[in-house]
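User: quick one, sequence for these tokens?
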């Protein structure tokens, strides 16, 4: 049971968090709620959260029998501080159990291949800019090259 979940979602929307991120956080909170079973959120302590961390880092397995990837673990845990801070702010709980806790961060990796300037010049020269589709394609290539966009964007 996740108390005030709808209010939490509305609060995240007001903060400008994307709906995609909100859905992901709520999904990860549901995983935590399943781990707790019927335990009341008011009784969740830092120790409970530490046990959950250990569970998903060492014991939990996917349907295929594999451990969770570091990025998945990070996402499962990052929803907790935000949610408990919200519950404390709404006075549903007296103390945020995630306060002063550290959560693991997944290692960031650079792409395997970064095109050279020459590669990019060749790519940009590829579209036929005498036709509309070529102008569109070149604009897309230039946007992707000059702006650090995320995959979702």
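Assistant:
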């Amino acid at each position: 049971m996740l108390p005030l979940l709808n209010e939490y979602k509305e609060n995240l929307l007001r903060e400008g968090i994307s709906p995609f991120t909100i859905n992901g956080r709520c999904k990860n909170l549901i995983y935590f709620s399943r781990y707790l079973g019927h335990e009341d959120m008011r009784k969740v302590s830092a120790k409970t959260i530490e046990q959950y961390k250990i569970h998903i880092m060492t014991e939990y397995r996917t349907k295929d029998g594999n451990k969770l990837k570091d990025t998945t673990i990070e996402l499962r845990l990052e929803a907790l501080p935000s949610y408990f801070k919200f519950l404390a702010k709404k006075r549903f709980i007296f103390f945020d159990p995630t306060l002063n806790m550290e959560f693991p961060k997944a290692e960031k990796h650079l792409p395997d291949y970064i095109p050279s300037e020459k590669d990019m010049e060749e790519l940009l020269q590829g579209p036929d800019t005498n036709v509309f589709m070529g102008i569109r394609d070149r604009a897309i290539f230039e946007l992707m090259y000059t702006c650090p966009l995320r995959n979702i964007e």
